[in-house]
Amino acid sequence: MAVATFIFIGLSFTKPRTHRIFHYITAAITMVAAIAYFTMASDLGQTPIPVEFRRSNPKVSGTATNWNREIFYVRYIDWIRAITTPLLLLDLLLTAGMPWPTILYTILIDEIMIVTGLVGALVQSTYKFGYYTFGCVAFLWIAYTVTVVARRHAGPLGNDVSKAYTICGVWTIFLWFLYPIAWGLSEGGNVIAPDSEAVFYGVLDICAKPIFGALLLWGHRNIDPARLGVRVRDYDEVPVVTHGGHHGEKRDGTATNGSAPITDTV
Question: What global pTM score does this model have?
Answer without folding.
Answer: 0.79
